[in-house]
Amino acid sequence: MNRQKQPEAGGKKPMNKVNFGRKVSSIHSHVGYLEPWPFYEAAEPISPMDPAPQTTEELLAFMDCKGIEKSLVMPNYGVPKQEQPFSHNQLVVKMAKEGGGRVAGALWVSGLSQNKQRNEEAFTLLDEPGIRALKMSYLLGGTPNPKKWDQETTVLHERIFAEARERNFPIHFHTGSGGSSDITEYFELIKRYGKENKIHLVHMGGGTSGHIRLITHWQELMEGGYQIYVDSSWAIGFGPRRLLQEIDKTGIGVDRFLFGCDEPWSDFESEFWKIQGVAVSDEIKERVFWLNAEEQYFH
């Protein structure tokens, strides 16, 4: 397999070392090689990201450079190959074992019937040291709306949710504006599973419409007993600013907003300042930047 070296660890180009003077843990970053692909009719295959860490040493070097104390990592994905993200589950397990308590892992699973056996293989890794979550996305097919599932798809999802529930693992779901990732497609899933399962909505709904819809329902979801969590990676500035100010004012959901840098798709520096720059109490920022992660993934 072709390997791309992580900067610094591979020696090809140095990473920019940063020190923002805060304790920071990230609950969302990706690891493992992702091949270039002709996305969106590109004339030549491209990779829209810097190389992701492919060894524990590369991951820890990146964390040290960015001042990240602890990380929850998950398989890199994005090309239309169902087997590709599953192929990095063993890497996630290895990093969690070798990370010296600084690394936790989220394993890739899928709601598509064609991945049933791949899910079974992933389930055998759930009790490995440091595994703390599951990761799903409907970008590669399917829908999060239970009303649109057939019986086989429903059984498959029930199994995934049961495995997560048994271990009190959050399930991380990619959200984005439009299509199968739209937040409106998730509300039925939240209604069906959100009181018994922890549901982490990555990108806090995804885009302007997603942020507004999620923020509009935030208080009723919290007060209704739904175990909803978010991170602000890829979020548009007004979204996290508005939600954090609401949390700061009401205290509702103070333990449900976590920092995620989504490296290497996003970048740590801009994701950091998206939170640091918001006019809320330092107590809220401390919870977002590390304390909520500590309680959820590293206790």
Can you tag this structure with a few keywords?
eight-stranded parallel β-sheet, 8 strands, globular
Tertiary shape: globular
Strand content: 5-15%
Estimated radius of gyration: 18 Å
Order of helices and strands: EHEHHEHEHEHEHEHEHH
Number of helical regions? 10
Q: In terms of structural class, how would the helical and strand content be classed?
A: alpha/beta
Number of strands: 8
Please state the average pLDDT score: 93
Main beta-sheet strand count, sense and barrel state:
8 strands, parallel
End-to-end gap? 36 Å
pLDDT below 50 for ≥5 consecutive residues: which ranges?
Answer: 1-12
> How much helix, percentage-wise, in residues?
25-40%
Brief write-up:
This protein is of the alpha/beta class and 299 residues long. The protein has 10 helices and 8 strands.
Architecture overview:
With about 300 residues, this protein is of the alpha/beta class. About 40% of the residues lie in helices and about 15% in strands. The chain contains ten helices and eight strands. It has helices at about 55-65, 85, 90-100, 115-125, 150-165, 185-195, 205-225, 240-250, 270-275, 280-295, and strands spanning about 25-30, 70-75, 105-110, 130-135, 170-175, 200, 230, 255-260. The protein has an eight-stranded parallel β-sheet with strand order 1-2-3-4-5-6-7-8. α8 (about 240-250) links the parallel β7 (about 230) and β8. α7 (about 205-225) packs parallel to α8 (about 240-250). The protein is globular, with a radius of gyration of 18 Å.
